[in-house]
Specification:
Elements: H1 3-16, H2 21-34, H3 38-45, H4 48-55, E1 59-67, E2 73-79, H5 80-90, H6 94-99
Antiparallel strand pairs: 1-2
Helix pairs in contact: 1-2, 1-4, 4-5
Length: 103
Amino acid sequence: MKDETILKKVIEKAVENGWPKMLGNVVKRKIELGGATKPNYYYFIFDHEFAKAFFGKAEIELLTGEYGKDNVPQKAFIPLWKHHIQQLALAKDRLAYLKKFLK
């Protein structure tokens, strides 16, 4: 799948889940005109509102790496979108990371 196609599908999923349609159309047009270059998509894939719409707002449980009483591992709950935006920042191929979440 071409990078432009991945980005368009990513935008469509985010719009379906509540990201503003007008903004999605602007970004899609920018990609159509300028291609799937990093400046054309980096600014929106790290946007918190985009991430909430694309990855979801549910919470996940993570271990904090700390231990409490009786040496029990401590846990924290964070929104799913925050976890994925962190993983996206660390990913070598950010489009491949996003592609994994498309149907």
